[in-house]
Amino acid sequence: MLHPSLYLFLVPAVAMRLWAEERRAGTIELLLTLPITLGQAVLGKFLAAWAFITLALAMTFPIWLTINYLGAPDNGVIAAGYVGSALMAGAFLAVGSCLSALTRSQVVAFILTVVVCFVLLLAGYPLVLDFLRGWAPDLLVEGVAQISFLTHFQAIAKGVLDLRDLVFFMLTIAAWLYATVLVIDMKKP
User: Which residues contact 177 (CB under 8 A, 6 or more apart)?
Assistant: First the structure.
């Protein structure tokens, strides 16, 4: 599964401009004077970027068609993988949006997003969880596994659309977008 690794660099590259460029160019003041709420502005920018990334994901659709032409794959697993990929991209993008709002520099926003998303991915790797099991309480190990994007993505990529995984990604997106609103509101000129 290359999606997590690919998204680790693709999504922060898209997210780094969401708010850092607005701050650097001074256009955030203009944006905040429009007759929309700050939450609507954050949601609008997020949805536009998510649509762009989802379009990039949709460009792989001919591969799915080719695989179906050449054989008989389990299309349910492939469809679930697409859903999981889109949700994970949205979660990465929400993280990037919040971190982009913290800084004026796109490069800093990119690096921060890569680091935070890497940590949120790394938390689900078996090596990390096995290391924690050696000395940490089971509750902590389970908590670390549950905050990992990888744990939830892998469950969906196996073809199992568990409501808990879908809710995790949607709540993660909502929480990071709410944090974006708070950060921008605190940094208003």
Answer: 42, 43, 46, 94, 97, 98
Q: Extract long-range pairs of 55-58: CB within 8 Å, 24+ residues apart.
A: 56/10, 57/82, 57/85, 57/86, 57/89
End-to-end Cα separation, the chain, in angstroms: 43
pLDDT digits (tens, 9 = 90+) for 8-20: 899 999 999 888 8
Out of 65-79, 132-146, 170-184, which region has the weakest mean confidence (pLDDT)? 132-146
**pLDDT tens digits, one per residue of 107-162:** 999 999 999 999 898 887 878 777 888 887 888 877 888 888 888 898 898 888 88
Task: Note whether 173 and 149 are within 8 A (CB).
Answer: no
Write down the pTM of the prediction: 0.89
Is residue 189 a contact partner of residue 29, using CB atoms and an 8 Å limit? yes
- Give whole-number Cα distances, 165 to 96, 137, 148, in Å: 20, 23, 11
Buried b (16+ CB within 10 A) or exposed e, 63-89: eeeeeeeeeeeeeeeeebbbebbbbbb
Q: Which one-letter amino acid corresponds to residue 119? A: V
- Diameter of the chain measured on Cα atoms: 58
**Contact between residue 184 and residue 42 where contact means Cβ atoms under 8 Å apart:** yes
The domain locations on the chain are: 3-186
